């Protein structure tokens, strides 16, 4: 804290007069205080002399102009340099970029390197100069400009590399030249890949040479140069992996195959032989591996089809833990059907999955592990808390837990209940008395499928649930749904009013088919054909159906057959229907078929245009005929 205070400019020292508060640390004071000496000497002016101006971005146009003059580059290239170093410009003045460019060019670094690696310019000038000085100390280097790719590495890594290179004796003077000689690759290319794997210099010299000899005996030199990180593995592991690869049906062996997980080199290469092509490998950095083997292994372990195995693989995003988790769960007695249904849990880290299964094993009254597997989708700390709560709660005359009590009363499998509870974890937090009372009310008045599908209603107090059910039951009778408990009063009142209106039209036991028979004068067979032709009509409110029929028959004098031929009109907006029929009447059109009224806006407008064009042509013919 003392050092920070010393860095703050003198004009910020007057704490009381400036009304300084700790929240300002996140603003201009901190950035102003932490600017480097070089940054504060910049000759680009601030927007004003206030401290708040120090937090703003510098004038972009002026900086772009300087970059363009220094590098003689295009506008697109200067924009690219600016965007790459935009974050640095929030802390350092733009002179940092121009000084770094001048420093790099003074040391013979080409402009192309700056364009390809623009973030190098964000390095503090002093640190960049130190890197360049260290790289010149690397033994046996004819042209230091070739070492420019190492500027992207950290100063600590470069320092370690130079220290090691100075004290070790190796053919060529350093490891870069040694690899170039052994592989027959040009030094600049070796440097390019060495810079991205600078940790290779941390390997002991004997191990480095030994691993390089092993790899060159089995792999192509160009491939070894591109994957130098393989030299960091133990020689025995490299030999073992290369031997396994040689005995496989692979046509080519590459160094990155040495780095993939062991499961990639399993005993099953049948798919490679059958399909007559190379297996699908993916980079181990992405935590995926030999896809063909994994799919075959899953089919064998789960007894599933190739399509099902592919679906599981895609759901788990090719997780590296996939096969290990399947084998672990099978050992614990989890059924293959359960794993197929709960596939996402297979992408959990094996250590986490083992901990979750161990936690579930402590659940009292656990009848079968398969009943609670869906809970593995939760976080470990969530699962521990839920299991602890379930163990401290007793339900029913026989000691059981909330999951089994719910499943036994509602008549579903415990695994189905657990799956829904895992998606709605509040079911474990509802007070015991509310849970039991609400479950009893729902079972008395609602279908069990509806209860399990909509658990949100359990969050309400038993008093509200009972009151809502009583109100809905007066109007709807036995047709009650959980959403009626949790919806706003306005929605419930509107729904009940619509139910009353529909009941007044249909009677106690009348259906929409019987209403068609009575209202349109059809027999039951014709009414059923209307429903079959347009099944969605069954879902339209009967009050709306009545209004549409009244409008078509009473106001427009259409016949019931017109409605039977185009039942879609019953689902169409009555407001739009009236608007279109009025417009058609104005242009002298009475459509024979109601289907045109149900068309899309574009199709309807095209019909109107064609009709008016036709009427215009007839008018001209009549006028000149």
From TrEMBL:
Gene Ontology biological process terms in this record: termination of mitochondrial transcription
One Pfam family cited in the UniProt record for this chain: mTERF
InterPro entries according to UniProt: MTERF (IPR003690), MTERF_sf (IPR038538)
Source superkingdom: Eukaryota
Annotated GO CC locations: mitochondrial matrix
Entry keywords, A to Z: Transit peptide
Keyword Transcription: no
Similarity field: Belongs to the mTERF family.
Listed PANTHER family: TRANSCRIPTION TERMINATION FACTOR, MITOCHONDRIAL
Protein name: Mitochondrial transcription termination factor
Native organism taxonomy: Eukaryota, Metazoa, Ecdysozoa, Arthropoda, Hexapoda
